[in-house]
Amino acid sequence: MSKQTYRVCFCFRRRFKLHVAEPPGEVKRLFVQYSENGTMTVDHLHRFLVEVQKEERATREDAQAIVDSLRELKHLNILHRKGLSIEAFFRYLFGDMNPPLSPDHGVGHDMDAPLSHYFIYTGHNSYLTGNQISSNCSDVPIIKALERGVRVIELDIWPNSSKDNIDVLHGGTLTTPVELIKCLRSIKEHAFVASEYPVIITLEDHITPELQAKVAEMVTQTYGDMLFCPGSEVLKEFPSPESLKKHIIISTKPPKKYLEAQEIKEKEIKQQKSKASTDEEAWGKELPELKGGDSVAGDSNDSDEEDNNHEEVLHDGDKAQSDVMPGYVRLIAIHAMRRKGELKDYLRVNPDKVTRLSLNEQKLEKAVAAHGKDLIRFTQRNLLRVFPKSTRFDSSNYNPMIGWRYGAQMVALNMQV
């Protein structure tokens, strides 16, 4: 228990006892070892940082900065003129200036596993400056998020007022738009300031095929070699964060016309398998209960953040293949699912491809209650993104622990307020 004084009416001083935690014995022994006459100088502190904290790259200037930061506590009389007292040293050890995991030590985890094995720092409506209804859209909150280490940026893209370009805004609200190209350029400039690990841009797409082609051109020209584009149409397994360092990844739901063409292909494959199965039955009927094909076909139902967030007009199946926007589709490294059927249907794991599923906080709670095991099995290979319910107009947040417990890698949080 230390003693402090304060001046009363600028005339006399009163002394009182300050109830603070006493430094434990180990801290006292370290202070004695790295101090002289009750004072830990800047040189002593520098030696402590290198020898005890194992901060080999720490400089004398770093030690001086710590001492200077503690001068804000001079009203507690715990800082000597030439260095730190035992109380100041104790406050430094357990304060914000001395985090348990020093950024100077780098990443201590194995980063060579598939991306689905990691929790990813994810933002929601990253372009909003405030509430979800009437705030401005800007690239400034995107920059701030990236500087804090956020790795997933969400952009809602819509046609501009003249229908010849693309804006970013929260559709159906009074939010003012910002141009997509401005957001893309800001992401490029600030993506790897805080971390070299990949930045994922999730697009909620409300644009026409013609504008999708324009987005493809914008993204390609802006990011160039930084853009991760897998060679195949779909990934069978996600690459590792280590292999994706300093890459930009696009994730969204493929266009409906592309999915229509894919469904046609899958139906043809099913028909071929069915014909082969029929031929085998005609030769001997050794496998009368073989019914495996349908479960695989059910896994191809892709969806994204909202069940109906595309406004494209579908044409007949014969024309679907020719109308596909190949440049835009090639940009999508992480395909998001289009939800169809029951909850359990789109939690099925497809061994031939990985995907991303988005659920709002309420649908996640239902999935946890009814299909908890399926949810965990899904997140072992695939990405799950959880986002706030639509009634959080004030940009408040939900409890992220529910998603994390069940393996949701992208727990998207509002960071505007």
UniProtKB/TrEMBL annotation:
Q: How does it sit in the membrane?
A: Peripheral membrane protein
Q: What is its main location?
A: membrane
Supply the source organism for this entry.
Answer: Eucalyptus grandis
Per UniProt, the keywords (alphabetical) are:
Hydrolase, Lipid degradation, Lipid metabolism
- Protein name as catalogued: Phosphoinositide phospholipase C
- The EC code for this enzyme is 3.1.4.11
MF terms from GO for this chain are: phosphatidylinositol-4,5-bisphosphate phospholipase C activity
One GO BP: intracellular signal transduction
Leading EC class: hydrolase
Q: Which segments constitute the PI-PLC Y-box domain?
A: 358-416
**One cellular-component annotation, GO:** plasma membrane
